[in-house]
C-alpha cells in the first residue's frame, strides 16, 4: 500500500467516469477535467472537444489506473471532472 501526503483529487468534489464528466461539463459545473491518455479515443476525443468549446481546462494523466488511484477508486477511470466550488 502506497501512502502519500498528497491526496490529490480525493479531497476535491469530483465526478468520475464518462457519463458524469460529460454531464458536469455540459451543465457548466466542471472547473477542470482530467483525461487518461490510454482511455478510449472515441470517448476522450468527445470530452476534449466539449471542454475546448466550454473553455474548461484539461489535464492529461498517463494511465486510467493512475487517474483512478488519484480519485481514490480501485479501478481505472478514463476521465474525471473537478467541480466548481
Topology:
Elements: E1 14-16, H1 18-26, E2 30-36, H2 41-54, E3 57-61, H3 64-70, E4 79-83
Parallel strand pairs: 2-3
Antiparallel strand pairs: 1-4, 2-4
Helix pairs in contact: 1-2
Describe the protein in words.
By secondary structure, this protein is of the alpha+beta class. It contains three helices and four strands; from the N terminus they run E-H-E-H-E-H-E. Strands 1-4-2-3 form a four-stranded mixed β-sheet. Strand 2 (30-36), helix 2 (41-54) and strand 3 (57-61) form a beta-alpha-beta unit. The radius of gyration is 12 Å and the shape is globular. The N and C termini lie far apart (31 Å). The relative contact order is 0.30.
Task: List its traits.
85 residues, alpha+beta, four-stranded mixed beta sheet, 35% helix, globular
Average pLDDT, rounded to a whole number, is 89
- What proportion strand? 15-25%
Estimated helix fraction: 25-40%
Major sheet size, sense and barrel closure: 4 strands, mixed
How many β strands by DSSP? 4
The strand order across the widest sheet is 1-4-2-3
Structural class of the secondary elements? alpha+beta
Cα end-to-end separation:
31 Å
Amino acid at each position: 500500500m502506497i501512502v502519500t501526503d498528497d491526496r490529490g483529487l480525493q479531497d476535491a468534489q469530483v465526478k468520475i467516469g464518462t457519463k458524469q464528466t460529460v454531464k458536469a461539463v455540459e451543465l457548466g459545473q466542471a472547473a477542470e477535467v482530467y483525461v487518461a491518455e490510454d482511455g478510449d479515443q472515441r470517448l476522450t476525443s468527445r470530452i476534449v472537444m466539449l471542454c475546448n468549446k466550454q473553455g474548461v481546462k484539461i489535464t492529461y494523466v498517463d494511465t486510467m489506473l493512475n487517474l483512478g488511484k488519484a480519485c481514490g477508486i480501485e479501478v481505472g477511470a478514463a476521465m474525471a471532472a473537478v467541480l466548481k466550488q
